[in-house]
Structure formats: C-alpha cells, structure tokens
Design goal:
The protein is mainly α. 71% of the residues lie in helices and 0% in strands. Helix 6 (128-138) packs across helix 8 (154-188). The protein is elongated, with a radius of gyration of 23 Å.
C-alpha cells in the first residue's frame, strides 16, 4: 500500500507511528520540489521542507478527509513559503566574540558598548517569562509556536510581547535621556 493512500493516512492519523513516518517521507520529495520551484536550490529549502512536514505532523489529527492529505500538505508548504517571504527565515544568527560586541556603521566603540549595556539593563527589568517570550520571538518563532512551547494561548503571548516592548521602550527612553542630559548637567557646574 502506498503511504499516501487514504487507508494509510487513516492509520497515520490514528497513531500508527510507522505509517506516519512513511507518510511524511513520501511527502518530502513533493515539498522539496514545491520550494525549489519557487525559491531555487537555496539552503533554506531544507528548513522549509522540515517546517512544512512539522506543520503536517502537528495538524494530521485535524485532517477531515484522508484523501485530501496532499492538498493539506501543500497548504502547509504555502504557509511556510509565506513566512519565508515575510523574512522569518532571514539569517538571524551571526556569531560574535562576546567580549567584543560588534560595531554598527558610524558608531564609535564606546557608544556601542553603552547601548548594549542599556539594552541588557532594560531586558533585566522584564519578568523571566516575558524575557523568554521576547527571546523566542527574536529567534523568529511565530506566536503560535511560542504559545505551544510555553503552554499558553497565542493571545496571551501577543499581549506579553506588547507589554514587554512598552516597558523596554520606557526604560530605553529613560536611558537616552540620562545619557543626553547627565553630561550636560555635569559640565554646567
């Protein structure tokens, strides 16, 4: 029996791990072809395929028609492609020496260290839960994945992000005011 036959799909949906593995393996070439046709043979294709397979794996129990699996998988692929175009898969990780923070263009070395210190101090004012959400969001995780990871709702995660950014904005605004007016006040004496 082919892994994408409706009977095999029904077994995979009912919890048969072998059927599920065969099903996901059978979808992989179609998904890879879908992404390559749209973005070319780029390194991100493997990530997109894996994330689309993860979406299928997570949503398989919600599939209502076993003969519609391929359409279900292609819709998952389309969502991943949209995330890719929105910049979710942009390179976010650049490795730096932690003792020497990177310099932005036009920034003097002391200014960059000061800004990094201010940001770290502002982040330290957040609760550990809010800090974890902000870190996961910065790594590119969507709100739904963060909510599942932390065992909460997507709406609660969005509210935490909103409140955390408001708090960070307030803290950083205060740090900028101190940085601008404190030296002036010291030299005025």
């Amino acid at each position: 029996m082919h892994p994408l036959d409706p009977q095999a799909v029904a077994r995979a949906r009912s919890g048969d791990a072998v059927a599920r593995e065969r099903l996901l393996a059978a979808l992989m070439p179609a998904l890879r072809g879908f992404f390559r046709a749209r973005i070319g043979a780029r390194p991100e294709v493997d990530d997109l395929v894996q994330n689309a397979l993860l979406r299928v794996h997570r949503g398989l129990e919600h599939l209502q028609q076993d003969d519609r699996l391929k359409a279900f998988a292609m819709k998952a692929a389309l969502y991943e492609l949209q995330d890719h175009y929105r910049g979710r898969y942009a390179a976010r990780e650049t490795l730096y020496d932690p003792e020497r923070p990177p310099l932005d263009e036009g920034t003097r070395p002391g200014e960059q260290v000061s800004m990094r210190y201010d940001l770290e101090r502002a982040l330290a004012t957040l609760t550990p839960h809010a800090r974890q959400i902000i870190e996961l969001r910065e790594m590119g995780y969507p709100y739904l994945d963060i909510a599942e990871t932390l065992g909460t709702t997507e709406a609660a995660v969005k509210m935490q992000v909103k409140r955390a950014f408001e708090r960070l904005r307030t803290m950083l605004d205060a740090a900028v005011l101190v940085a601008v007016f404190l030296p002036t006040a010291l030299f005025a004496r």
